[in-house]
Amino acid sequence: MRLRPASYLILGMVGLGARSGHAIKQAADRSTQFFWPMSLAQVYPELARLHGGGLLRREEDPRGGRERHAYALTDAGEQALGEWLRSGHAESTQFRDEGILRLFFADALTPADQLALLRRLRERAAAVTASTREEILPAAEALEASGTRGPALVARLRADTYSYVEGWLERAEAELGDP
Amino acid sequence: MRLRPASYLILGMVGLGARSGHAIKQAADRSTQFFWPMSLAQVYPELARLHGGGLLRREEDPRGGRERHAYALTDAGEQALGEWLRSGHAESTQFRDEGILRLFFADALTPADQLALLRRLRERAAAVTASTREEILPAAEALEASGTRGPALVARLRADTYSYVEGWLERAEAELGDP
DNA sequence: GTGTGCATGTAAGGAGTTACATGATTGC
DNA sequence: GCAATCATGTAACTCCTTACATGCACAC
């Protein structure tokens, strides 16, 4: 059975206590979304696959007449997750950013339009920093207080990195406007 | 005719002087690869599509018995590229990083394994900085000397950002080892 | 004559997205 | 009664990747 990053993401979320497909998606939207996007349509087929492969246990857990499944890691699931976390193996990273692509080709623009592009990118970076600090970090810090530090670590890395990029772009703007 | 980022990437590369599909792919591998990956199999169909849509002119330009096409921007192509560059519209960004995903779930590891993970991520960041400065920047700076500044700007942004991340991870390591 | 680089493409498949489809529960 | 939230799934499609397929030119 082949496991992809999305498989480990689901395994990891179950490990952190998310029990239903819905809860996994909710948690992912508030935390891992930014460095590993996952759509809802991926969650249910993948849960079924992981259950079929013996990595997840599944129990019926209805709320009234509304069906619900409660997933938990099996021993094999726990082991697969641990092995992945310890392996440095072939870390797939992929970064796609249309804004940076524009910047690459910015010489085709007038200086004024170049400045406008830099300003837009800077504002976007600032917005990422702000939304991460206001919307993502608080929940991550609540988890941190109970001993789970990964989410807060990652949220701070994101906020601080985009804050750095914001400053970098601000300097680039200044240099472009007044060389 | 619908234009995607990969379309503008090709248009932009032609604008910068890449004439054949091969040359476009070569240039992309050395520069835009890192923030907008594009595989060879995308290039030729997309060139044909852009030619069919009137955004590229195409001439036969054989080298001996080896066929070659020389592409150039039409007025419509130049205009489409310019409009995209000036539009702030819906910048699609997507960041996927398996290493950060591991960090998010790192609480499942022993402290020693957490440290090892942080170290691996730091070394990876350092390698990105180094390879960008050594392999990407020099060519971009040569272009810069002749007035095309985008490539160097983007290469420096990449190198400096990963350098910042390297320092950040180093501090995180220190805090984890000695809180 | 052989390996490296230049050059153009196609076929099949995988990963992930959008949109669709449905329905119960809970709080106002 | 109504809206928001919880909850589970499927279908069609798009985008992109890997692998395949071919062949000339040039330097050594």
Note the beta-strand portion of chain A.
5-15%
Which sequence of strands runs across the widest sheet of chain A? 1-2
Order of helices and strands of chain A: HHHEEHEHHH
Structural class of chain A: mainly alpha
Question: What distance separates the N and C termini of chain A?
Answer: 57 Å
Please estimate the helix content of chain A. Answer: 55-70%
Name the pair of protein chains with the most residues at their interface, and give those residue counts: A-B, 57 and 57 residues
Overall, the morphology of chain A is: elongated
Our Rg estimate of chain A from Cα atoms comes to: 21 Å
Q: What oligomeric arrangement do these chains adopt?
A: homodimer
* Major pleated sheet of chain A: 2 strands, antiparallel
Uncertain stretches of chain A: none
Number of strands of chain A: 3
Q: Could you tell me the mean pLDDT of chain A?
A: 95
Give the helix tally of chain A. 7
